[in-house]
Design brief:
By secondary structure, the chain is an alpha/beta fold. The protein has helices at residues 16-19, 23-27, 42-50, 70-76, 86-89, 113-117, 132-144, 162-168, 187-193, 213-217, 234-239, 257-268, and strands at residues 3-6, 36-40, 55-61, 80-84, 101-106, 122-126, 149-152, 177-179, 197-201, 208-209, 221-225, 242-245.
């Protein structure tokens, strides 16, 4: 059964994990087995619990203990539930976006590429996408529009950063994902060995149209999206099986990577 602990001051050490630890401190790269992340809002916390994530503690606005967070508390077992009045919690940056509930959880063990791609037919590959808001938006589109998994290069922002989780509405817990690792073989070749054709989303005059029937006919596709501003590296484009662009009008030359991902995922989804 949960242990309710009332907090009366913002400086209380019980709030450190929510108010004062940085994202890098939460990740704890020196001891990854002790890494944590923060899930915000009852719905997102429930999606993390559904995915098997282990809760460490909860922080709730006092009125939600018997209200909208009641079921979340019941699912979390014997962990401390810190609670305070809104005047205390309002000092937390962005607290108004959390719907009055936060949960510190242990980071899940990273999965292998082979495990994540098991049974997948449509996947997204993100190259050096560094904005957590874009990461979250891409995950939400990937989950909603038929992608089976997401792969990220090591320079990408962490999908378990608070902003990424929040923007994704918890879909980072619903769609399998992992980081690509350099094992001496290019990730394009790794995907090719698993039967995937790679599709580089790039602004080139010789690109295929996104509605080209050859793309829809492929059994397995990996949709590759590049960093904000510069897009995909030239070497990445040349190593992919297809280069594809989204038609533009009114002189617009590109879309934000999150918006482009939604268009690509919808058009290239498995029929």
């Amino acid at each position: 059964m949960a242990r309710i602990v009332e907090v009366t001051e913002f400086a209380a050490p019980e709030l450190d994990i929510y108010a004062r630890l940085t994202e890098n401190q939460l990740v704890n790269r020196e001891h990854p087995e002790q890494g944590l992340f923060i899930a915000e809002s009852p719905r997102v916390i429930e999606r993390a619990l559904d995915a098997g994530c282990e809760p460490v503690s909860l922080l709730l606005e006092k009125k939600h203990i018997e209200g909208q967070a009641h079921e979340v508390i019941a699912r979390c077992g014997d962990i401390p539930v810190y609670t305070a009045e809104f005047s205390v919690l309002a000092q937390l940056t962005g607290f108004h976006l959390t719907r009055g509930a936060l949960c510190a959880m242990r980071r899940p063990q990273r999965r292998s590429v082979q495990e994540v791609l098991s049974g997948a037919h449509r996947v997204a590959v993100l190259e050096d996408v560094v904005n957590p808001t874009n990461i979250g938006a891409i995950f939400r589109s990937a989950a909603a529009l038929g992608m089976d998994a997401v792969l990220l290069t090591p320079a990408c922002s962490d999908p378990l950063y608070r902003r990424a989780i929040r923007v994704s509405m918890g879909t980072v817990f619903q769609i399998p994902w992992t980081y690509l690792e350099n094992d001496g073989t290019s990730w394009q070749r790794q995907l090719g060995n698993m039967g995937f054709k790679t599709v580089a989303m790039a602004l080139r005059d010789d690109s295929l149209g996104i509605d080209d029937p050859r793309l829809r006919d492929e059994e397995k596709l990996a949709v590759v999206l590049g960093t904000e501003g510069d897009g995909l590296a030239c070497d990445t484009i040349y190593a992919c099986d297809y280069t594809v662009r989204i038609p533009m009008y009114h002189g617009v030359d590109s879309l934000n990577v999150a918006a482009a991902s939604a268009v690509a995922f919808w058009e290239l989804r498995r029929r």
